[in-house]
Amino acid sequence: SLGLVLPLTWTEFLGLEVDGGPKRTSRRGTSPWILRLQKNVPWLVPHYLTALFFLTLLHAFSHFGLLAWVAAAQTALQLLPPGQVPQLGARGQAMALQVVHLLLCAFFVRSLWLMHLFVKMFVVLMVGGHAYVIADVGDSSE
How far apart are CA 17 and CA 80, in angstroms? Predict the structure, then answer.
């Protein structure tokens, strides 16, 4: 996992109210849809990145990419009880987990960099479209 703090549970994220976007107004100034995107996108970025990571990981599993191997190593280190490997010890195992997590983040960024331009544009459109059609979610924290 990426280790991001999610503002909502996945059940709450999937159950967000869809209102189809803000109502059109004739007032001057910043458009309501821009205000909605400015509010919803930063609030839901951890969810969007986690979903993108999961999809990128599925793609890496399909062709045994580097991201898949690093994710498997991180999972193994997380599931292994501390001190189980005598050569590493508990402290060395924690350091190895941190190094593997850093590698996982680096390979995720590499996967995003190598992703096809049309896929990147599709992801941006999906995030923007989702943030547009859901009701403002940041209201409860103010």
Answer: 40
DSSP 23: P
pTM: 0.83
Counting every residue written for the chain, the total comes to 142
User: Residues with Cβ < 8 Å from 71, sequence gap 6 or more?
Assistant: 57, 60, 104
Ramachandran quadrant class, 87 (left: phi over 0; alpha: psi -120 to 50; beta: rest): alpha
Query: Coil, strand or helix: which one is 121?
Result: helix
Q: Which residue has the tokens 């001057």?
A: 28
Q: Mean pLDDT per segment of 10 residues, for the chain of length 142 residues?
A: 85 90 78 88 94 93 91 92 82 92 95 94 95 76 40
What is the residue-wise DSSP string for 42-103? Answer: HHHHHHHHHHHHHHHHHHHHHTT-HHHHHHHHHHHHHHSPTT-STTTHHHHHHHHHHHHHHH
Residue 122 — left, alpha, or beta (φ > 0 → left; ψ -120 to 50 → alpha)?
A: alpha
3-state class (DSSP) for residue 128: helix
